[in-house]
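Figure S7 source data.
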Amino acid sequence: MKTRSMTRQELRLRRSKFLCLPPEIFIQICAHLLPKDLASLLRVCKQLYNELSIVEPSSTIQKIWKQSRLRFMPLRILDPPKGMSEQEYIKLLIEKKCSLCGKKSRKSKIYWDVKVRACESCYEGGTVTGIELFYFNYSACEIITCIPFTNIRGDSKSYWRFLVEAKLKEYKSLRGIERYHWVYEQTKQTEEIQSEVTKRWREDYSNSKNDFKYDSFNI
Ligand SMILES: [Zn+2]
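Tokens for the predicted zinc ion complex:
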């Protein structure tokens, strides 16, 4: 159902009503809201949310977000990626805005290796395929096991350019045995990232939000 957007006066009135609520009642209300509505409400009632963050431990606030996710997005059972709060995670799941250019795009996708949502154009411009690296940046191929791939483009894996450059810079700053250890550790980390990403691709697939090929998981 299409809803009319609120006027500034209505918004101010609604905001002030929420500001009169005691934090425990506010929490009760939040616990029954859709993630999308929860995000909107907390944006509007920023002052109350900030106060709530002071009086409530962050675990309570995280619990509200998690409860909302599990209740209304039952196929999103994986917890947020390491280093990401429930709030940031839900925002990444529901917002269609590209994290790189800021434009809204219905075709935007989440790239879990770098934890960003990107539109088609930022993905195309920001990534390079393994085949392109082979022809134009062969030194990156020497450390390819140290770079997580983000998706499949054509018949080849694709990698974020900034990640390739950062890893190469790090690798080139090392000498001799240091390089050997670095490659060993980075390869291990990359395998862990790739395994985590594969789980999230499966969940994306179950949610039918993304149109990548299921076959690509083991390539
Ligand atoms: Zn973009």
